[in-house]
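Q: I have 221 residues here and want to know how they pack in 3D. Can you give me a structure?
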Amino acid sequence: MSDREHFSGTGRMLMGVAWAVLLLGLWLWGREVTDVRHGISAPITGDMAAVGRPPTADLPPAAKPLAAALPQRLDIPGLGVQAPVVARGLDAQGAIDPPPYDQPGVVGWYANGVKPGAVGTALMVGHVDTETRPAVFYRISALQPGETIRVVRADGRVAEFTVDDVQVLSRDHFDAQQAYGVRKSGRAELRLITCGGTYDRVSRSYTANVVVSAYLTGTGP
């Protein structure tokens, strides 16, 4: 998600509109929805290196879901990301409230949804860039199946997730089931979401969402 809109009053409203598409999937969170179709295989955000890279990996089996615990930090070793996690709700327009505009290195977790590591689908959102520099999720389109995402939790455990899919979903044809539906019943799953596609200077928003899907494969220190 870009912070370009943050620098004007109308931009603040446009930012809310841009994030509002995430609401389309709220009713699916935690539900046992399967048979999810695959989306675009060449995700595009600020990191163009991911485009056209074929996803190939032998993926490990899923681990047993953990008891619920609050997330504290998100680590993506392959991207060098270590980001604090803050709980977020819905804003006045009914959209998911993203992390504060002046904290582009922070990840937002939807606190009314599933806790990362527990059974179901947990959702985390982050900005892709700001007016002057990349933000926390700038390079998540470069993630490949088999890479690791770690969530440090308040119970002292680290939930380790393995990426199994990266998609770009157009906002014009956003498929909530595809983005938020549980891929396999009984698993603990995680979604990382940011803006993607191209930046539309007329609407002052991006044309798509990048959705990284991962599932729990173990715990670590």
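Q: Anything worth noting?
A: Confidence is low (pLDDT under 50) at residues 2-53. The radius of gyration is 16 Å.
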